[in-house]
């Protein structure tokens, strides 16, 4: 026990000596690994259980792993005056999750991951429509470039568009709406409060869809679903903390690792080799999202330099 404690203290000391950028990048890489493992496990368990039931247990066990954090704060992080907005975010999130988990159960996971990269593109459009942000021509061109990448993957008119591809695209659009709500909530709420209410509402809202398709399962399947909840919690917490450590623009290039990990998992465990259209389309979509994030950072830096007081 003493060796473990000293080891943890040593790791903590080394971690604290790193720059915020390094910590943020390492946490972002950890989140991509955790998300990819969770997606692989969802695909695996969906062979014996419906996706709606898997989503319920992912949320229940995810919330269970958050409980120590809630108890340590004596549930103080649940104090909020925006419970309605948290609930709305939960409704949108659960629909997006159910769509995404269903897509994972019927489509190659690399393709699902590639199409999920359209979420920042949808969010850029919503930033104009909902948040009133102004976009210049280069951002609209980047958005069009992103949708071109989506068309490369889907190839409408050339091949039949499968249900899984449609579901993950709709899921990405809904997730973009949820991200806008998160952006609004973050003006007054801490990231811990947002994550905690996400876990609570997702757990509540996923009960009835799960009961609708409920099937019995054994202890081994339960163990896999506990792992889904664990890796989902690790992914969410790592991502949230990475965004606290450093600028999102510095982290976005590493988010592309998800496609690499899921492609490896799909090939190794499910015999799914992503086609060239998926890889090219994913690169185009991701490049577009990266460009939008970079231009947003440049715009903010320009605005802050104009408003900064003279020395």
UniProtKB/TrEMBL annotation:
<feature type="transmembrane region" description="Helical">
    <location>
        <begin position="164"/>
        <end position="182"/>
    </location>
</feature>
<feature type="transmembrane region" description="Helical">
    <location>
        <begin position="21"/>
        <end position="42"/>
    </location>
</feature>
<feature type="domain" description="EamA">
    <location>
        <begin position="23"/>
        <end position="154"/>
    </location>
</feature>
<keyword id="KW-0472">Membrane</keyword>
<feature type="transmembrane region" description="Helical">
    <location>
        <begin position="138"/>
        <end position="158"/>
    </location>
</feature>
<feature type="transmembrane region" description="Helical">
    <location>
        <begin position="83"/>
        <end position="106"/>
    </location>
</feature>
<feature type="transmembrane region" description="Helical">
    <location>
        <begin position="112"/>
        <end position="131"/>
    </location>
</feature>
<keyword id="KW-1133">Transmembrane helix</keyword>
<comment type="similarity">
    <text>Belongs to the drug/metabolite transporter (DMT) superfamily. 10 TMS drug/metabolite exporter (DME) (TC 2.A.7.3) family.</text>
</comment>
<feature type="domain" description="EamA">
    <location>
        <begin position="163"/>
        <end position="292"/>
    </location>
</feature>
<feature type="transmembrane region" description="Helical">
    <location>
        <begin position="194"/>
        <end position="215"/>
    </location>
</feature>
<protein>
    <submittedName>
        <fullName>DMT family transporter</fullName>
    </submittedName>
</protein>
<dbReference type="InterPro" id="IPR037185">
    <property type="entry name" value="EmrE-like"/>
</dbReference>
<keyword id="KW-0812">Transmembrane</keyword>
<feature type="transmembrane region" description="Helical">
    <location>
        <begin position="221"/>
        <end position="239"/>
    </location>
</feature>
<dbReference type="Pfam" id="PF00892">
    <property type="entry name" value="EamA"/>
</dbReference>
<dbReference type="InterPro" id="IPR000620">
    <property type="entry name" value="EamA_dom"/>
</dbReference>
<feature type="transmembrane region" description="Helical">
    <location>
        <begin position="251"/>
        <end position="270"/>
    </location>
</feature>
<feature type="transmembrane region" description="Helical">
    <location>
        <begin position="54"/>
        <end position="71"/>
    </location>
</feature>
<feature type="transmembrane region" description="Helical">
    <location>
        <begin position="276"/>
        <end position="294"/>
    </location>
</feature>
């Amino acid at each position: 026990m003493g060796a473990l404690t000293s080891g943890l203290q040593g790791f903590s000391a080394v971690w604290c000596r790193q720059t915020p950028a390094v910590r943020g990048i390492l946490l972002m890489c950890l989140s991509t690994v955790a998300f990819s493992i969770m997606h692989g496990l969802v695909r695996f368990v969906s062979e014996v259980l419906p996706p709606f039931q898997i989503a319920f247990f992912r949320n229940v066990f995810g919330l269970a792993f958050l409980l120590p954090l809630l108890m340590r704060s004596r549930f103080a992080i649940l104090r909020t005056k925006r419970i309605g907005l948290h609930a709305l975010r939960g409704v949108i999130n659960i629909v997006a999750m159910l769509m995404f988990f269903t897509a994972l159960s019927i489509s190659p996971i690399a393709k699902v991951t590639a199409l999920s990269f359209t979420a920042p593109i949808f969010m850029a459009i919503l930033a104009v429509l909902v948040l009133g942000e102004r976009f210049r021509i280069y951002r609209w061109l980047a958005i069009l470039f992103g949708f071109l990448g989506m068309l490369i993957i889907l190839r409408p008119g050339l091949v039949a568009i499968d249900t899984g591809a449609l579901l993950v695209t709709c899921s990405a659009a809904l997730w973009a709406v949820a991200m806008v709500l998160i952006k609004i909530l973050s003006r007054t709420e801490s990231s811990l409060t947002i994550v905690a209410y996400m876990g609570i509402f997702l757990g509540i809202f996923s009960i009835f869809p799960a009961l609708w398709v409920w099937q019995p399962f054994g202890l081994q399947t339960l163990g896999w679903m506990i792992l889904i909840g664990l890796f989902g919690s690790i992914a969410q917490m790592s991502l949230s903390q990475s965004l606290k450590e450093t600028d999102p623009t510095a982290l976005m290039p590493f988010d592309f690792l998800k496609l690499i990990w899921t492609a490896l998992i799909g090939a190794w465990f499910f015999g799914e080799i992503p086609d060239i259209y998926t890889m090219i389309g994913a690169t185009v979509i991701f490049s577009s999202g990266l460009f939008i994030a970079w231009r947003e950072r440049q715009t903010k830096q320009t605005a802050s330099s104009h408003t900064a007081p003279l020395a």
